[in-house]
Design a protein that fits this description.
Elements lengths: L2 E9 L4 H19 L4 E6 L6 E8 L2 H8 L2 H14 L3 E9 L5
Antiparallel strand pairs: 1-3, 1-4, 2-3
Helix pairs in contact: 1-3
Length: 101
Protein backbone atom coordinates (compact mmCIF):
# COMPACT_ATOMS: atom_id res chain seq x y z
CA UNK A 1 0.00 0.00 0.00
CA UNK A 2 0.99 3.61 -0.37
CA UNK A 3 3.07 5.46 2.17
CA UNK A 4 3.29 9.12 3.09
CA UNK A 5 6.06 11.35 4.29
CA UNK A 6 4.38 13.87 6.57
CA UNK A 7 6.26 17.06 7.40
CA UNK A 8 4.81 19.10 10.25
CA UNK A 9 6.16 22.63 10.60
CA UNK A 10 5.58 25.12 13.39
CA UNK A 11 6.01 28.48 11.66
CA UNK A 12 6.87 31.72 13.40
CA UNK A 13 3.89 34.03 12.75
CA UNK A 14 6.22 36.80 11.56
CA UNK A 15 7.26 34.71 8.52
CA UNK A 16 4.04 32.82 7.84
CA UNK A 17 3.11 34.71 4.65
CA UNK A 18 6.63 34.48 3.17
CA UNK A 19 6.81 30.80 4.11
CA UNK A 20 3.44 30.12 2.51
CA UNK A 21 4.43 31.76 -0.79
CA UNK A 22 7.84 30.02 -0.85
CA UNK A 23 6.32 26.62 -0.11
CA UNK A 24 3.61 27.09 -2.76
CA UNK A 25 5.77 28.42 -5.57
CA UNK A 26 9.14 26.76 -4.95
CA UNK A 27 9.40 24.04 -2.36
CA UNK A 28 6.35 21.84 -2.96
CA UNK A 29 6.63 21.74 -6.78
CA UNK A 30 10.37 21.06 -6.64
CA UNK A 31 10.03 18.41 -3.93
CA UNK A 32 7.30 16.57 -5.84
CA UNK A 33 9.62 16.09 -8.81
CA UNK A 34 12.87 15.52 -6.90
CA UNK A 35 11.30 13.05 -4.45
CA UNK A 36 9.68 11.14 -7.32
CA UNK A 37 6.46 11.27 -5.28
CA UNK A 38 3.05 10.30 -6.61
CA UNK A 39 1.53 13.46 -5.17
CA UNK A 40 2.28 16.34 -2.84
CA UNK A 41 -0.26 18.23 -0.78
CA UNK A 42 -0.05 20.82 1.96
CA UNK A 43 -2.21 22.86 4.26
CA UNK A 44 -2.49 24.85 7.46
CA UNK A 45 -3.93 23.32 10.61
CA UNK A 46 -7.33 24.60 11.67
CA UNK A 47 -6.63 23.40 15.22
CA UNK A 48 -3.12 24.70 15.91
CA UNK A 49 -2.22 28.23 14.83
CA UNK A 50 0.72 28.52 12.44
CA UNK A 51 1.13 24.77 11.95
CA UNK A 52 1.76 23.77 8.34
CA UNK A 53 1.56 20.13 7.24
CA UNK A 54 2.84 18.70 3.95
CA UNK A 55 2.06 15.22 2.63
CA UNK A 56 4.19 13.42 0.03
CA UNK A 57 2.69 10.20 -1.33
CA UNK A 58 4.85 7.24 -2.42
CA UNK A 59 4.11 3.88 -4.03
CA UNK A 60 5.18 2.06 -0.89
CA UNK A 61 7.16 2.36 2.33
CA UNK A 62 10.35 1.19 0.62
CA UNK A 63 10.26 4.16 -1.77
CA UNK A 64 9.64 6.57 1.11
CA UNK A 65 12.47 5.05 3.16
CA UNK A 66 14.82 5.31 0.20
CA UNK A 67 14.11 9.04 0.05
CA UNK A 68 14.64 9.44 3.80
CA UNK A 69 18.25 8.27 3.56
CA UNK A 70 19.03 10.01 0.26
CA UNK A 71 21.27 12.92 -0.65
CA UNK A 72 18.23 14.42 -2.35
CA UNK A 73 16.44 14.86 0.97
CA UNK A 74 19.63 16.10 2.65
CA UNK A 75 19.86 18.80 -0.04
CA UNK A 76 16.24 19.83 0.49
CA UNK A 77 16.79 20.00 4.25
CA UNK A 78 19.84 22.22 3.76
CA UNK A 79 17.93 24.52 1.42
CA UNK A 80 14.98 24.68 3.83
CA UNK A 81 17.31 25.52 6.73
CA UNK A 82 18.99 28.24 4.67
CA UNK A 83 15.63 30.01 4.37
CA UNK A 84 13.91 29.19 7.65
CA UNK A 85 16.44 28.23 10.36
CA UNK A 86 15.34 29.64 13.69
CA UNK A 87 11.88 30.50 12.32
CA UNK A 88 10.40 27.08 11.55
CA UNK A 89 10.60 23.90 13.63
CA UNK A 90 9.63 20.74 11.81
CA UNK A 91 9.28 17.01 12.23
CA UNK A 92 9.06 14.21 9.69
CA UNK A 93 7.09 11.01 9.90
CA UNK A 94 6.52 8.08 7.56
CA UNK A 95 3.12 6.41 7.53
CA UNK A 96 2.30 3.28 5.60
CA UNK A 97 -1.39 2.66 5.04
CA UNK A 98 -2.53 -0.74 6.21
CA UNK A 99 -6.20 -0.38 5.32
CA UNK A 100 -8.35 1.50 2.87
CA UNK A 101 -12.12 1.18 2.52
Amino acid sequence: MTAYLIVRAEVDPSVRNDFDVWYQTEHLPQALVAFDALSAKRGWSSVEANVHIAFYEFHDLEAANTLMSSDILKGFIAEFDKHWAGKVVRTRELVEFCQAI
